[in-house]
Input
Amino acid sequence: MEIAAYFEPLDYPEEKFSKDKSCIGSAVKFYMANHEFPVLNGIDIALVGVSENRGAVNNSGCSEAAAPVREKFYALKKWNHSYRIADLGNLKSGLELNDTYAALATVISDLIKNDIMPIIIGGSHDLTYGQYMAYVNLQQTVNIAAVDCNFDLGRTEDKINSNSYLGKIILHEPNYLFNFSNLGYQSYFTGYESVELMKRLFFDVYRLGEVQANIEETEPVVRNADIFSFDVSSVRQSDAPANGNATPNGFYGEEVCRVARYAGMSDKLSTAGFYELNPVLDSNNQTSHLVAQMLWYLIDGFYSRKKDYPWKNKKEFLTYKIAVENSGHEIIFYKSNHSERWWMEVPFADSKIRYHRHHIVPCSYGDYVKASSQEIPERWWRAFQKLSA
Output
């Protein structure tokens, strides 16, 4: 891989993270000053720091997040996994903001092509645009799952920033976005019109209270994602003070750690990003520690993957077919014998063959129960509308 030129090495003492063999830092290959770029053969996960906040809105200083997150993450204890992780250092910022997006996209796409999952430690939330552009480079349609209190749609005339990146992704041509899911939006930040727009686009949006009332239902949402994007402002200020847009309400720390593990367990997920942590505003490194713990859970989920996505092999699944009366639709469910997770099959038009990766939709047992009660699950219906148009 020819990506070494995009990175600056870490400016730490050589043994800083490797002395305690019980900690994760001892299992990581680092790109340190005065050392060669790490050989990535056999690596599963690559950490990428991005010191970029020119797109930040009211959160200048979030460019410095990678260092304190690393400090906390590498001091956490290893679990019963064979960790194959490399820390590639910090991505060099481009002359213009778009140059940073392009560099990030190049690095991510190259890592994905080599079966390595990049984890981005930003930086502002608009770096999700760089994550998305990696899949444009790969010409691969994708699903994005974002944990955020807002949708970041912006206005058409706005320059790209942390409040408008999603609008730019939606309008990008050619478009490779199949589905967008938001977890934890807060109605007083989004507004009625934005919520209705997301519904008209057949995107999956879940209000904070709805998610907190049934956190298990986030699992099939993030299981359907190729890109996981986390905004620290989605967490309440008492749990994550290090954000210029922090507010009294939001997720609790243990809730976002749970969502991160669900994301890591997804066989589909190929990149994750953590954004908007501003160390200048942190209290005793509390927010850095929370993001470090989310990283720990994401990676724990990654090494606990079941590899049972049904489009590869349906023999290991129980199949249930339910005809929903008066709808003309038969819904096919698959239940994994290995993990007991559920999926639904959605028919698609010949003209939508480019979306074949997305016609088997992760779901929950609750969706099966709903179909058994002669009600079409919303997840199935939204995917059907996009695949049959």
